[in-house]
Amino acid sequence: MKKTQFKTHLAYNILDAGDDYVIQPNFNTVPNDVFKRQFAVIGFHYLIDENTIAYAEARKDFSDFESDDKDQQSQMEASEDDGIAFGFRYKF
What angle do CA 76, 79, 84 make, to 5 degrees? Predict the structure, then answer.
């Protein structure tokens, strides 16, 4: 019996760092700051063979970052955005 060639996945991730969040390098946020990273990912994978996968994935960001210090808020938001990825993964 042949394996299914297409696989899909859907994920929703939440990271609520709480009051003890630290921006690297060792810069503490103000206790009233909000750092809640959350995003959804949907992916489609095509199994070419047992070592090779072609994939397309999309990410939608729903993060919540708030700070009275807008410079600090921009540091928290810097790595979060919507995105699309296409690629191949090969295992040696």
Answer: 145
**What is the C-alpha to C-alpha distance for residues 9 and 44, in angstroms, rounded to an integer?**
7
Tell me: the pLDDT tens digits for 40-68?
A: 999 999 999 889 999 999 999 888 777 77
Pairing of strands 52-61, 27-28: unpaired
Q: Give one DSSP letter per residue of 35-88, joined into a string.
A: EEEEEEEEEEEEEEETTEEEEEEEEEE--EEE-SSHHHHHHHHTT---EEEEEE
Closest CA to 62 of 33, 39, 81, 36: 39
